[in-house]
Amino acid sequence: MSHNHSPITICALKFDISGDGLVNNASPSLSWKFQGDVLDWYQISCDIRIDRETGEENYHFDTSKSLFIPWPSTPLHSREIAKISIRSNGRGGEDTPWFGATVEAGLLERSDWIAEMITSPFPPHTDLETPSRPFLLHKEFHLSEVDLAKPARLYATAFGIYEITINGVNVGTQVLKPGWTSYDHRIYYQICDVSTLLRSGPNVIEGYVAEGWFSGRLGFLGGKRNLYGDKNGLLAQIVIDDEVIVKTDSTWTASQGPILSSGIYDGELFDVTMAGVRAGKLPVDILPSPGGELILDMAPIRRMEEIVATELIVTPSGKKIVDFGQNLVGWIRMNRPPSDGTSGDRLVFSHAEVLENGELGVRPLRVAKCQDTIILGTDNSILEGWEPKFTFHGFRYLQVDGYDDGLGITDFTAIVVHTDMERTGWFTSSHPMINRLHENVVWGMKGNFVGVPTDCPQRDERLGWTGDQQVFSKTANFLYDTTSMLSGWLQDLAIEQAEQKDVPPLVVPDILAKIYPQQAGMTLAIWGDAAVLVPLSLYEASGKSSLLVEQYESMFAWLSKGIPRNEDGLWGKKSPDDTQLGDWLDPAAPPDFPGDGRTDPYLVANAYLVHVTRGMAEISRLLNREEEALRFEAEWQDLRQKYIDNYVSKTGRTVSDSQTALALSLHFDLLSESQRPVAVARLEELVKQNIFKVATGFAGTPIILDVLAANDRLHLAYRMLQEKQCPSWLYCVDKGATTMWERWDSMRPDGSINPGEMTSFNHYALGAVASFLHGTIGGLTPLEPGWKKFRIAPRPGGTVTSAEIKHLSPYGMIRCSWKIESDNLKVAVCVPPNTRAQIDIGNLQVEVGSGKREFEVGYVADPRWPPKPIYHSMTIPLIDEIA
Length: 883
Ligand code: BGC
Description:
Distance between the termini: 49 Å
Helix content: 10-25%
Largest sheet: 9 strands, mixed
Bound molecules: beta-D-glucopyranose
Domain Alpha-L-rhamnosidase C-terminal: 779-854
CATH class of the largest domain: Mainly Alpha
Structural class: alpha+beta
Number of helices: 15
Catalytic activity: Hydrolysis of terminal non-reducing alpha-L-rhamnose residues in alpha-L-rhamnosides
Strand content: 25-35%
GO molecular function, one term: alpha-L-rhamnosidase activity
Enzyme class: hydrolase
Organism: Kwoniella dejecticola CBS 10117
Radius of gyration: 28 Å
Shape: globular
Number of domains: 5
């Protein structure tokens, strides 16, 4: 037994991808995480004990695997609860104590659902301008003492967004239920333990249903409503001890409550005078049951944080604005209702991300109103703690109109809402602006992981753009455990792709096909490549190879049938007018043509094609698909040569003379050995000529700093990162950004909002730069899926003198902190149990097992710092500022 080290214990047990023990799978895999820092500890075997209704079962496996161990027992049946205990046996007899957790199966068979989808008799809403009015559905039922002796579960979902109360108490902690999926194919349901809410005697269950994504207005250019149907509905049943004691059916009644309208883009209208009133008590209608599969929601959306206001602002025009100091996604809670007011007066809350000329900057919201309104009564006390229920906003600033009661800074709290994922990545350094940049990336992710990974959370869009997720997924997977949310989203992608001639939709769930059928099937690299690259990145982060099995058909279909090809196998066009979005949002592109950047879009598409083909070869090999592996390996070699023939000069210049073209060619291994140095030298020149400002968009930005660092140009990578003038990462930070922006100059140096139609202040895509912070400054890179083996290779540079990084890997917490002290680099690392790390610092290269270790090597600052720009102009003053 080693001393001075904390012993190894198991600290978490996961069933498949479920963190809370609820599963949708009769045979969930088992994965466990370790804590403790015993040196070189690894698992040699494990014991699994399962306590089921049928008795206790014991299993022993001689395996070092602690992730995704197949379910050893017979399948669970619907609603079965079992207790699983694990003990992991370590090298040298150092075993962990037993660790137990409960697994509970959901409704595994469709026949378990005996409830009916019910709706109100109110006519469908067709008006595009205003959201529809949510409705209430009620039922009274009786229970005896005997009923209450057993645990009770509520199973529910909706066409729309729903909330359920039992005896006046809201059920569960989830919001915006059931979340957004490709409803025609897959619809999530939720399980809640309602045992403590029920009582003997009369009980009341009430459902509140709003339009949500199901029938609310969605899409840009005005969008469309009723995309999945024009009737909202509720499907719910409470089960006690295998008996359904209440279920939605024709015995329920419908009415209308105090919410007069509520929509995702436009916000909510609440009438105080209607609170507690149930207008009408009408019979309900029965809807056809959901055509899509009912799937247990593994990615619940919740209230995750509360933010207090930092300032009250009175604008030049006299408006009152509350500043929460952070651009966020969610809504506000009213802590102090106005004490006086005239019945019928309106209290209007307008949300925006920025101010322009001191006033609320709402233009970027396009035609999303993002406004919650309250019609006041004479007694407004019920507004204490009021929050909207069926909408969400992206905002930092809240303009309050009609609150004449001396607005105070504590009167409102901002509620941050996103999918409840486990946080897994942290980074901090000696450089405060780089730290803020990292925070902004994290906030960009929170705001755009509300059920679906979206482009932005505020304007009339908020869609699951595949390209945005593709470029950001490596960063996302470092920061949070996205497995549950993204694996569901990928299933939607695959299903919708199959319906569109093997081309993944540009947004998932695909509303574009429903709204703009002419755009459906638009075939784009980067966006379509999400079909291969998002699962691959998720597999690398999580170690879950079954994900690749599940997505294989979609990946294969994209490469072998979806991509239009020329005779030589490179990207072709379906029609002569076809185009690509290429290096989308290259800063050189004009505000209204973000795809019109410096790099030939087909060069970008083909660079990606070679890369994706190689990825496909690797995946096929991993899944033992020998025939496909050989095919894609051959295709990769062939396409690589064709890329070189078409886009690279003999010596190594690229035909688009741009940072993105060079970075893609270097990063995706698209150059011969003799061409690489020429490409690197030209890239260096372009970086210096551009005075270290960003010159890349979606394709180049995620990789440019990594490429510089990997090609002995670390000083240039740091120099670009530390540039403060526009366009640069720290320009946004300098301008007070608290999230990642869509454009480098969403806010222009003169304080005006970029006039482009697409100007959001919360777009995660360009935050992919955080991978450089994680992999190069922090120094952590996975070498084997799930971080079974990884590299610790921090690379100090620029003016950064220390950094600390943490990643909660599937095996446990990885830590690395370093600082430069006199002429030494001191590095402290912590490697989780059952993993190995390659340490690579200075001239020290060593492989180690688990535990805490410290290293010290000689450090010589890079003599190339600070690099000098290449300056073309004799007249324009040099704008070059290191942050
Ligand atoms: C979105 C982008 C998206 C793009 C593609 C935009 O409106 O906000 O992030 O990828 O459209 O066309």
